[in-house]
Amino acid sequence: MMTVLEKDPLIATCGCEELPDAGKLPSLDTALQRGLALVRPVTRIETLGLGEAAGRVLARPVAAVAAMPPFDNSGMDGYAIRLSDLVGEGPWNLPVIGRIAAGDAPHGTIAGFGAMQIFTGAMVPDAFDAVVMQEAVRRTSSGIEFVARHSPGQNIRRKGEDQGAGSEVVGPHRKLGAREIAAAAGAGVALVAVFRKVRVALVVTGAELRSGGMPDNGATIPDINTPMLTACLTAPMVDICATLIAPDDCAQLSQTLRHLAPEVDLIVTTGGVSVGEEDHVHHAVR
User: Fold this and answer.
1) How far apart (Å, rounded) are the C-alpha atoms in residues 195 and 233?
2) In whole angstroms, what is the distance from residue 119 CA to residue 76 CA?
3) Tens digits of residue pLDDT in 266-280
4) Nearest to 166 by CA among 63, 59, 61, 62
5) 202 with 233: CB under 8 angstroms?
6) Helix intervals (H) in the chain
7) Do the Cβ atoms of 154 and 86 come closer than 8 Å?
8) Is there a contact between 72 and 126 (Cβ–Cβ < 8 Å)?
9) Per the confidence metrics, is the pTM higher than 0.85?
10) What is the end-to-end Cα distance of the chain in Å, rounded?
């Protein structure tokens, strides 16, 4: 998959996008559209763990393994109550008959009149149908006292209210960033299907180029394009398969391109596209 960037406003006035097609270079937009028309999407799929998938492109949608939340839980620290215990007008006084923290798994029905102290994210036990926030109660020697009448489900996050089991969490063809990976993890997903990396070869031409650390014979210039383009292409979804400095020789350049073409998805070349006798890239490509 490829992502086309928005036109940079800083270069919008360079004039290259306004050039007419007739007898001159195509505009930047036209050249871009012609290039994109030649693109064949990557179709091979591989499966990765979430920890390896950052920056990759999803091939299939991510669906929730289970409902989220997976059980009724408290939306805040407070006290789980049964509304049937609230008789008459408030204030009401209830004994505290137990304590449930996040991660505790109460089983069965908790018998007896009274409230359960409960913490944010903890499972709400069966038959308890509201949670009173701790700021709304007064602790007494025997339990709690509060005056506000609560409605069924108040301060309870119901099972599946965020997403149901099997619901789509992240759509296909999305790049997996931090938010997408968090959503997938929250949905209980451990493995994702992604497109394989785009294979790229970088071919820099120019006999005058000097790589870093090479001696200068007085007629060479530093090779800027190789490190710059390598940095530009470095991404989780890209595999830079080859980085070559090719000689200014049409036959050798043709052989290099012919060798690379079946091995990669994209060949990026620099230099050699003018009309001089030492410009061989366009001839080699043809």
Assistant:
1) 17
2) 6
3) 989 887 565 565 666
4) 63
5) yes
6) 28-37, 178-186, 225-233, 250-260, 281-285
7) no
8) no
9) no
10) 26
